[in-house]
Each structure stands twice: as C-alpha cells, then as structure tokens.
Amino acid sequence: MQDPNEKIGPGANPTFVPPAVPQPTQTAAKGTQTKPQAQAGIFGNLVLVSWLEEAGKDVIYVQNTETNDVQEITSEPNLDNFRIVELHPNADLRLFEAVISNGRQQGPVRFRF
C-alpha cells in the first residue's frame, strides 16, 4: 500500500480526486409515459393464458392468479362484463398485450413468464 502523503515521482504533485457519487438516473423524458410494472386493482391479478382467432373473432383466455379461475373474453361482454378493447399482438409473447374492460375501467393483461 502506498502512503497517500508520499510523492509518486520527482516533482510530482498528486491531486485529490473525490470519489464518484452516483447521480439519480432519469427514467423518462418529460411528457412521456412509462408502462407500470404491475397493474393494480381488478386487472392486477389477471394474466393472459391463451389467444386465438375463432371464426374471424379474437378470443382470449384470462386467469385470475388468486382464484385460478379462467374465463373466455371476446369483443362482446361476458358474464363478468369483461370484453376486449384492443389487442397488441406480437411474435414475441413477452410483448403481446390485450387491453380489456369491465365497463367501468380498462387495463392491460399479458402473458406471465
């Protein structure tokens, strides 16, 4: 170990360099929105388990992770009043998203990995 007061070489004038202090990073520019990691409320417990096109209509199956109940959802309201609002299909299933509504609120559901 080197003595911090010791000169390194002839005529050397060591200077003090303060340690780097990490600065907070900006996650998004002003005016842009980021997707929440977890959706709260009624949609927070729902995960997409299947998607298919049947007779020209999109059909998704969604599972409640608390009760394990699975329900079919189409563009028409089901018994729980859920319906598909939008589909954002993607070959990468981690990016596939369905936006559903219960008539009062809407939120995204995704496949769980």
Task: Describe the overall structure.
- It contains no helices and 6 strands.
- It has a domain at 41-110.
- A 3-stranded antiparallel β-sheet has the order 1-2-3, with no helix packed on it. It has a 3-stranded antiparallel β-sheet with strand order 4-5-6, with no helix packed on it.
- A hairpin with a 5-residue loop joins β2 (57-64) and β3.
- It is mostly beta strands.
Instruction: Please give the alpha-carbon distance between the first and last residues.
Output: 49 Å
Mean pLDDT: 78
Strand order of the largest sheet: 1-2-3
Helix content: under 10%
| Biggest sheet layout | 3 strands, antiparallel
What Rg, in angstroms, do the CA atoms define? Answer: 27 Å
- Beta-sheet strand percentage? 25-35%
Strand elements, count: 6
Number of helices: 0
Order of helices and strands: EEEEEE
Coarse morphology: globular
Which blocks of ≥5 consecutive residues have pLDDT under 50?
27-39
Q: What is the SS-derived class?
A: mainly beta
